[in-house]
């Protein structure tokens, strides 16, 4: 297993797509953070209440330390998951288009171990990406703190906050694992990275739009429709991922400290269940097929 893991890790780390996609994610994060910093200088609307002068406090809290770190933790499970899913589907599906899977199994590699190794490697890549987004978010938040506060506050950094950051990395990783496992499983099932990308990215888009629509409808829906909306909200991957990333926001952002996150442990168990399900699908897709011939 360790040899297969090392081989898969080398393949992923040597792929230019892995680092190009990370660069794109970091560029988008930097753009979003910079935009929030600029928006903080917009004048408040005339007649707005409150004694706050200068930059809007909302955008200030979103960008300065420690609130800005929540953006680094949650950006990858949010918008960045699109790029990571593409990398995952490409890593698994290209084995067939390049024909590298045939000599791999000809050497006696265990098919189950290969699937598990691919997902473990992608999880490690996700952690590397997470650390990169956190570092970038810290740098940008420090710059925002200098701009808005005139100093870099570090009084928030204690053992408890360090523990929250570690837990935050774990929560963000768990929020992404079902999508990564799905990308690998579908790429192995269809022997095509393109189909896996289309299905996973399509689901992500539908989920983003659908969950927002369902949330808006829930306030007026009752009866069977209301129960259906509750069921979707309780079981959808994205809804449960949002619950975990919501814990990151609540721990780091002053704007969300009073936010109530419902059933976070249930959400974690559901995400683990989805991940295991897709791992099983990936294993079965390799076991049940003759892969001595390359697909047309």
TrEMBL record:
Keywords: Membrane, Transmembrane, Transmembrane helix. The chain crosses the membrane at residues 20-42, 75-98, 119-149, 169-190, 197-217, 265-286. It holds the Pfam family ABC2_membrane_4. This is ABC transporter permease. It comes from Thermalbibacter longus.
